[in-house]
């Protein structure tokens, strides 16, 4: 799998709701940008308890999903922006059903690894001003995902995002999201148990798998 990165996007904390700060809104960077263990140079998170860190260094929300949202939202001006959903890496021809947990990609000179799906939160609905978007994401599985950084390096818009290793786990990001995050989807003890023990899955999602497993018992 190989696709072209259309934009690399960063954001800094800004007033978001009732004086609360957020760096959810991301804007494209011109030229090369450094990719470190914490993510793109110039990117930040206001809420470090729930965002950022090594397992959520880079977020990719598939650009092809914007067409779905254009129809669902009757065309929204934010959907013309690469960073509309807080994405750091903007690319087409890649989605949750075509990538597996643990897949490794070369992005410019950096090596990155898929670590978890993105759990949607209220900030998406607040940014768009549309209630119900979180439920739609849970129902459709259009979650996006995060990478951890294995080798630091630089990258820029126009570089390839190329998968160089796959098959390290048996689950696509779509399957993990459905199994753990979607309360309406069927879950199995066997799969949840395996996910809870998988070290390639970020600790927060392993914990979520444990909780989902407990609810089945």
CATH topology: M1 Pyruvate Kinase, Domain 3
Estimate the mean pLDDT confidence. 93
Strand content: 25-35%
Give the count of helical stretches.
6
Q: Give me the count of strands.
A: 13
CATH architecture: Beta Barrel
Name given to the CATH homologous superfamily: PK beta-barrel domain-like
What's the helical proportion of residues? 10-25%
| Largest sheet data | 8 strands, antiparallel
Count of discrete domains: 1
Give me the secondary-structure category: alpha+beta
Which shape, going by the Cα principal axes? globular
Unreliable stretches covering 5 or more consecutive residues: none
Name of the top-level CATH class = Mainly Beta
Order of helices and strands: EEEEEEEHEEEHHEEEHHH
Q: Could you tell me how far the N terminus lies from the C terminus, measured between alpha carbons in angstroms?
A: 39 Å
Backbone CA Rg: 17 Å
Question: Keyphrases for this structure?
Answer:
217 residues, 25% helix, MOSC domain-containing protein, Benzoxazolinone_Detox_Enz, 6 helices, alpha+beta, M1 Pyruvate Kinase, Domain 3
Summarize the structure.
This is MOSC domain-containing protein. It holds the Pfam family MOSC. With 217 residues, the chain is an alpha+beta fold.
């Amino acid at each position: 799998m190989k696709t072209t990165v259309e934009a690399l996007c960063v954001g800094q904390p800004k007033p978001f709701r009732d004086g609360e700060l957020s760096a959810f809104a991301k804007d494209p960077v011109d030229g090369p940008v450094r990719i470190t263990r914490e993510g793109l140079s110039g990117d930040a998170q206001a809420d470090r308890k729930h965002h950022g860190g090594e397992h959520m260094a880079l977020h990719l929300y598939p650009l092809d999903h914007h067409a779905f949202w254009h129809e669902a939202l009757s065309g929204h001006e934010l959907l013309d922006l690469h960073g509309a959903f807080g994405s750091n890496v903007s690319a087409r021809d890649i989605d949750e059903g075509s990538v597996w947990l643990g897949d490794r990609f070369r992005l410019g000179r950096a090596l990155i690894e898929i670590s978890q799906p993105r759990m949607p939160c209220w900030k998406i609905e607040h940014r768009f001003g549309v209630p119900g978007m979180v439920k739609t994401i849970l129902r459709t599985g259009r979650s996006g995902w995060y990478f951890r950084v294995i080798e630091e390096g630089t990258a820029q818009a126009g570089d390839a995002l190329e998968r160089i290793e796959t098959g390290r786990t048996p689950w696509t990001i779509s399957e993990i999201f459905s199994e753990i995050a979607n309360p309406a989807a069927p879950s199995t003890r066997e799969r949840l148990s395996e996910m809870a023990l998988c070290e390639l899955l970020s600790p927060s999602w392993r914990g979520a798998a444990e909780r989902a497993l407990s609810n089945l018992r």
